Amino acid sequence: MLTARNVVITTIAIAVLSIAWMAYSLSRPPDSGGLGRDSYGTRAEGRRGIFEVLHTLGIPADRAIGPPTSVIGREATLVLWQPQAELVHVEPAYLRELSRWVESGGRVVIAPDSRTAADRSIRAIRQKTPKKPAKPEAPVKSAAEELGLPHLKLRAIDPKTGREPTPKPEPTTTDELQRLRAILTNAGQAEPTLAVAVQSAGTLARSLGGISKIQVPEQSVSVIEPGQPAPDGTLTFHDEKGQSHLLAASYRKGRGELIVVSAPEIADNRLLAQSDNSVLMVRLLALGDRPVVFDEFYHGLTIRGNPLWLFAQPGYAATTLALIAAIMVWIWREAVFLGPPLDPTPRSRRTLSEYVDAMARFLNAGPTSRPFLLREFRSGVVRSIRDELHLPPSSDQVERIAAVLARRDPIRARKLVEAITAVDEALDHKHPPRESAAIGLFARLAQCLPERITP
User: Fold this and answer.
1) CATH code at position 272
2) DSSP string of 73-109?
3) Are 53 and 272 in contact (CB under 8 A)?
4) Contact predicate 161/223, CB 8 Å
5) Residue 122: its pLDDT value, please?
6) Nearest CA-CA partner of 110 in 25, 224, 245
7) Contact in structure between 84 and 297 (CB atoms under 8 Å)
8) So what's the pLDDT on residue 435?
9) SS3 of residue 236 by DSSP
């Protein structure tokens, strides 16, 4: 039954269930349904494959959603595979702590983000049209630079010719929508790939020995320009002109090791099963009994789908606080404040009989109420008997009605004539009849009615 009580109970139940479901959702890994470019991703550009390959080989592998400094103090290999440049710019402190951890014996494998967006900060993206000249900002550092390799740079080339790839036109809104639709439906066409012969040297020769070919994107692949100091180990390939290009570099930092991979695409699900990509990834990540930890903090999984992260954004935080303040003011205005008890409200007439009694007392208070009620009751009695005798509506003469009634019931006819005469005499009198006399006249008229309607 739809009542106010049931509506309130239903609303409270829905609110409690919504809060419980939100808490349950926040407690689960925000894996985006496997659509992300991370170790949760199951689509072509995801990297779930390498995570499951390590598990199949019995190599301990885990994912870290919190800040990557959780590995400090452990003998583990931390994997920073294509971290978002925007998050690196906003949260560089964790990487600086990792740099000190590597020097004390830690091991990090990093594949920096080589996309165009890597050279832009979050502030630069937001302020596309600044209202006033912006202050010069400090150069945006990549993840490799924050880890202690300031001279290492990445450069995109055509793996066949070794030259810079043909620049693609700026994508339109339609292109972006088609790309998103292809990702969501998994209906996008696979990008062409190219098998390149690789050679390992230095400290990487022992772990990567026997790997001859790997698959890379055909149109564009990133390579490393190491600068100084020179890497301790390298993984290179040659283009068709015989020029060597660096795909991976290993650096000794104190007692630890830092490995940089320039082409993060080699670990994608779509390339992992081709050539020696899976073997290369396992040998890069696994070292003895060290567990492998995939960092997902710099992929944004900590803030992805987390509504509490909006409080860290000035615009959202101000809007939310303003809404909360407005709700609190409304609750305060609508609240019931405790105090002395109010005076009891007198009950109004609630039943029909009480209402009729009150109206009767009100009508009897007037000087013309009794004559009015007598006339109305007289007219009603005459009409009832006329209808009983099936006389036409024009037959309102008491003598004619009494004559017809006398044929059936002479006593009732005589009583009718006497009662009507007494009422007419009382109505013709200058003063209204007393209450007792009026009640007697009502009773005499009532006796003339048929038995089925006699009260």
Assistant:
1) 3.40.50
2) TS--EEEEES--HHHHHH--HHHHHHHHHHHTT-EEE
3) yes
4) no
5) 40
6) 224
7) no
8) 80
9) strand
CA–CA gap between residue 8 and residue 104 (Å, rounded): 61
Alpha-carbon distance of 366 to 436, in angstroms, equals 16
Residue 432 has which token pair? 């209204």
Q: Look at residue 388 and tell me if it is in a domain.
A: yes
Regarding whether 357 and 324 lie in a shared domain, the answer is: no
Q: Look at residues 420, 402, 424, 422 and name the one whose alpha carbon lies nearest to residue 412.
A: 402
Q: Token pair 């101000």 is at which residue?
A: 318
Domain interval for residue 426? 352-453
One-letter amino acid identity for 171? Answer: P
Whether residue 217 sits in one domain with residue 270: yes
CA distances from 297 to 30, 46, 70, 188 (A): 11, 16, 11, 28
Tokens of 248: 């991976």
Task: Report the mean per-residue pLDDT for the chain.
Answer: 82
Question: What does the alpha-carbon distance between residue 428 and residue 94 come to, in Å, rounded to a whole number?
Answer: 112
Q: What is the pLDDT of residue 120?
A: 41
Please count the structural domains in the chain.
3
Token digits for 146?
């924050």
Low-confidence ranges of the chain (pLDDT < 70): 1-2, 4, 25-33, 114-139, 183-190, 304-314, 336-337, 348-350, 452-455
Cα separation values, 172 from 175, 185, 232, Å: 5, 20, 43
One domain, residues 259 and 370: no
Instruction: Dig out the tokens for 418 from the structure.
Output: 């006497």
Question: What pLDDT was estimated at residue 183?
Answer: 61
The Cα–Cα gap between 167 and 299 comes to 26
CA atoms within 13 A on the CB side of 427: 17
Give one DSSP letter per residue of 30-73, joined into a string. --GGGTSSSTT--STT--HHHHHHHHHTT--EEEE-S-GGGGTT
Of all residues in the chain, the percent with pLDDT exceeding 90 is 22
CB 200 within 8 A of CB 235: yes
d(CA 170, CA 63): 35
Would you say residue 17 lies in a domain?
A: no
